[in-house]
Write a structure and sequence with these properties.
Rossmann fold; 3-stranded parallel beta sheet; elongated; disordered C terminus
Length: about 300
């Protein structure tokens, strides 16, 4: 509807943030590549500007005659960590299958325990789960509590927290888990991500990985397996050459987001600067009506 106002010449200027359309999701002979003639027409003639989620999308839109601009990654401010080389973050996700995902990841850790021995491991559980629910999940995995926020799995000490993966991404060297948005933020940070693929998973299923994650995360994504055994083998291979996987992810981040963060703030500032240049409406020239209540005009 806002685009119709802009297209019909109502005098209203429309500014959009295009989060659904991205050049990274384009595949030949697939719907993702077709922005759509009608949509492109609206974007071209019905908007004053379209802000994009990444730099390649801005170039793509500009090639279609759309006034597009990339002003930075839209997401939380993630400060870089100081010890990225030895921290691994495990994400069971926050959807209804988080507990099953957690058990999958703990089995993976046990199978790859020798390769993980020199790393600090940390789980981020969903913020909406109670302490009792998390405790039951850890007990099902045969973990043993050693502190309020850590447990033993075999001989490996693992710390955990709830809902704070944004704060922890900057200090991670590798992400392993079931997630969507969190892995996109990790890719922006140049952190490689291993994501298992389960047929009946709510999110990390074959369709989701093939149609979204593989295209959106590109070189930052490392496909895991559909069993803990396969995922453990992938994890061991990655840890054996971690620096190379990190360099690939960092190069992808540089190309895609050009090191620009603070997108939401930059877009707001850009809109504010545009509004400041809009000339004010002309004031009416009719004489003011007397107001007998306070003696003013």
């Amino acid at each position: 509807l806002p685009l119709l106002f802009g297209l019909l010449g109502t005098g209203k200027k429309v500014y959009l943030f295009a989060c659904a359309h991205t050049d990274l999701l384009r595949i030949r002979k697939k719907p993702y590549e077709r922005l759509g003639r009608i949509t492109a027409l609206f974007f071209r003639h019905g908007t004053a500007k379209v802000y994009t989620r990444d730099a390649p999308t801005a170039l793509w839109f500009q090639s279609l005659g759309i006034r597009a601009e990339f002003l930075g990654f839209v997401g939380p401010e993630i400060p870089p960590g100081s010890c990225r080389e030895k921290n691994i973050l495990f994400l069971p996700g926050h959807r209804g299958d988080w507990e099953r995902n957690f058990l999958f990841l703990t089995k993976t850790i046990l199978l790859a325990r020798n390769a993980l021995a020199s790393f600090a491991l940390h789980f981020v559980f969903p913020s909406e789960q109670s302490t009792a629910q998390i405790a039951r999940a850890i007990q099902k995995a045969r973990g043993e509590f050693v502190a309020p926020s850590s447990f033993l799995l075999g001989q490996q000490s693992i710390s955990f927290s709830q809902g704070d993966y944004f704060a922890r991404l900057g200090s991670a060297s590798l992400i392993v888990g079931f997630a969507g948005t969190a892995l996109e933020y990790a890719a922006f940070c140049g952190i490689p991500c291993i994501e298992p693929c389960l047929k009946d998973a709510i999110q990390a299923n074959p369709y989701f990985l093939a149609s979204r994650q593989a295209l959106l995360l590109r070189e930052a994504l490392i496909p895991g397996g559909d069993t803990p055994e396969k995922t453990a083998r992938v994890l061991q291979e990655v840890l054996g050459n971690l620096h190379a996987f990190q360099e690939r992810a960092q190069q992808f981040a540089r190309t895609t987001w050009q090191g620009q963060g603070g997108g939401a703030r930059n877009i707001a500032q850009d809109l504010f600067s545009i509004l400041r240049t809009v000339p004010p409406k002309r004031q009416g020239t009719e004489p003011a009506v007397d107001d007998s209540r306070n003696g003013t005009r």
